[in-house]
Amino acid sequence: MAPKRVLLVDDDQSIIEVQKMYFEKEGYQVATCMQGDKAVAAFESFNPDIIILDLMLPGMDGNDICREIRKVSDVPIIMLTARTDTLDKIIGLELGADDYVPKPFEPKELLARVKAVLRRSDKKAAPAEQSQEKSTEIVTYPGFIVDKARYVVTIDGEEIYMPPKELELLFFLASNPDRVFTREQLLENVWGYEFYGESRTVDVHIKRIREKIEKSDGSQSWAIRTIWSKGYKFETR
To answer: What does the pLDDT read at residue 44?
Structure first.
């Protein structure tokens, strides 16, 4: 099996050197980029399996880079930032980042998150012969299909693009119809113990999911409902 490819984008030479050492020691193939305005070109030439992307970069910031890459690819992206502003994190997630790591961080923590994100991403490439498992990874309602085996959401016959984490959250809720989950329960069940996020992360992902799948006239026989002071549920009618 070919080694996974990691693209490190950061203008801090010491972070680049340390992370490159850690990833190569774990058997990853690593490319680096220290300028924001060269990051998209580095992505196109290296074709990474995952991108570690700093927010503050010379030439082009991490959010703009994430936006450009998301126009053409759903490659997993983990954002890094030395800033503590929650708004920065929300913007990154809304643009399609899969995870967010504040600086300073332990190299082992970043490595653990990369492994977790890649495990989820690898599920997209599951071989067709795993048909017996697929039946337990498809949720169907009238006009609505979530296929977790292929990472595809279909609404009224149209495939809807959805980053891995959004799809996994939707799949989990739809697999447990009419059951209310708190934000903490959703973080635990969808993101797993390796995600050290805030409950606001759930709100951001729910908002993005609703924008993609729900009709404004409420004509669908299902919907994601907010249960005030509690959390969310996938409601069927």
So the answer is: 93
| Both structure tokens of 67 | 């936006």
Tell me the H-state helices in the chain. Answer: 13-25, 39-46, 62-70, 86-94, 107-122, 131-134, 164-174, 183-186, 200-213
Backbone angles phi, psi at 219, to 5 degrees: -80, -10
Question: How far, in Å, CA of 45 to CA of 28, rounded?
Answer: 17
Range(s) for CATH 3.40.50.2300 in the chain?
5-124
d(CA 101, CA 82): 9
pLDDT of 230 higher than 80: yes
Tokens of 101: 């790591």
List C-alpha distances in Å: 47 to 6, 16, 44. Answer: 9, 18, 6
State the chain's mean pLDDT as an integer. Answer: 84
Per the listing, tokens 């991490």 go with: 62
Hey, how many other C-beta atoms are within 10 angstroms of the C-beta on 127?
6
Q: What is the CATH number of domain 5-124?
A: 3.40.50.2300
Mean pLDDT is lowest, of 3-7, 22-26, 98-102, for: 98-102
Q: What interhelical angle do 39-46 and 62-70 show, nearest 10?
A: 40
Which residues sit opposite 233 in a β-bridge?
Answer: 225
Which CATH number is associated with domain 126-236?
1.10.10.10
- The model's pLDDT over 143-183, given as tens digits with 9 standing for 90+, comes to 899 998 888 899 988 888 888 889 999 999 999 999 999 98
Please tell me the distance from the alpha carbon of residue 133 to that of residue 131, in angstroms, as a whole number: 5
Please choose, from the candidates 43, 39, 78, 41, the residue with its C-alpha nearest in 3D space to the C-alpha of residue 60. Answer: 39
